[in-house]
Amino acid sequence: MTQNGKIPFVDLVIPHRELQEELVAAFRAALDTAGFIGGPAVEGFEREFAAFCDTKHCVGVSSGTDALRFALIAAGVKAGHVVLTVPLTFIATTEAISQAGALPDFIDIDPRTYTMDPEKLRQYLETHCVLDPKTGQYVHRVLGRPVTAVVPVHLYGQSADMDPILALAERYKLMVIEDACQAHGAEYFSKKENRWRKAGSMGQAAAFSFYPGKNLGACGEGGSVTTNDEGLARKVSMLRDHGQSKKYYHDIEGYNGRLDAIQAGILRVKLKHVSLWNEQRRICARRYNELLAPMKGLIGIPYEPSWSKPVYHLYVIRIAYREELQEHLTHAGIGTGIHYPIPVHLQKAYASRNWNRGDFPVSEEAADQILSLAMYPSLQSHQQSRVAEAIAEFAQIHSVI
């Protein structure tokens, strides 16, 4: 939607306007039954989203952060464990690890995909870990803590390279919990299995966010855990609901982390459309690629490996003059975003860990250069042409190509 000639970074008005009657009907159904927590709407969404992800189970929860935290706890991550993830992600990834009682540590990213570099994961495990013969766990040589899980992040709508990550996890006895919060419907071709796999179906469990701006977004907060492990799903179901196995019978201490019925009803409506929306995002990405190709001396466009079918939650370019270009686009009425300007290891929240600039150079360089352009299913070709023209204008003004 263009407002006063401006191109917004994200448009949440059009899809809700187009689906207004269906969304209102979902809200009315909740009002008519007074079923606001749990019930048929939540169970129906869980069943349908599990099928969408090619998994046996889905458990709806209150946010993507809760989804990842509950998945880690249910999988067996305990206080004092080390869990590996990437520095270029939203802080919720590491918050969930810390809130599960574990200690996050980082593996740098592949410079092309922005996802976990399997080779760097291998180097970390070979150089930082040693097998404890008493426990059978691999222990960090310096920290003296067991390294028990890895959280690959499917960033910007593109899956991490899962085959080598899963192979290393098997060798080093690591649990794999996917952070799929930006990857609803993304696919990965597993050479090992000779088939395409859905994001959220490859690890022991996966976490999804339904924050409004996601490819599948609620009209509020929401999240889910997907898994093929019935016991893990049951544990997450208890964790989200105060540890209850049934009403007022608390087998464990849990949390208040339930997905409400109104949001579940809204998500069920939108789930019917998300595959089409994802394809529209892919079309927009291909159009950007064509429009920006003449400026390859100025910017780097997203890399799409042969093993990936990304869903372009974000369309992220790279440019050495990021702040200047963003300012130029802002003045032209074109919205942009930065995901993310400061890698997690350099955030003030983790100052006590004494990480420094230079510890994860690929993530740091990317964080200094990435810029997210407008990307949503209703984005029009003329709007994208205007974005490309503004970038070309910037290049001419600054003589950078």
Account of the 3D structure:
It contains 13 helices and 18 strands. The protein is of the alpha+beta class and about 400 residues long. It has two domains: about 15-270, 3-Layer(aba) Sandwich (Aspartate Aminotransferase, domain 2), CATH 3.40.640.10; about 275-400, Aspartate Aminotransferase, domain 1, CATH 3.90.1150.10. A seven-stranded mixed beta sheet has the order 1-11-10-7-6-2-3, with helices on both faces. Strands 14-16-18-17 form a four-stranded antiparallel beta sheet. Strands 9-8-15 form a three-stranded antiparallel beta sheet, with no helix packed on it. A hairpin with a 4-residue loop joins strand 8 (about 185-190) and strand 9. Helix 6 (about 120-130) runs parallel beside helix 7 (about 160-170) and helix 10 (about 275-290) packs parallel to helix 13. The model has no long low-confidence stretch (mean pLDDT about 95).
In the CATH hierarchy, the third-tier topology of the largest domain is known as Aspartate Aminotransferase, domain 2
Which homologous superfamily in CATH is the superfamily of the largest domain? Type I PLP-dependent aspartate aminotransferase-like (Major domain)
Number of domains: 2
| Helix-residue proportion | 25-40%
The CATH class of the largest domain turns out to be Alpha Beta
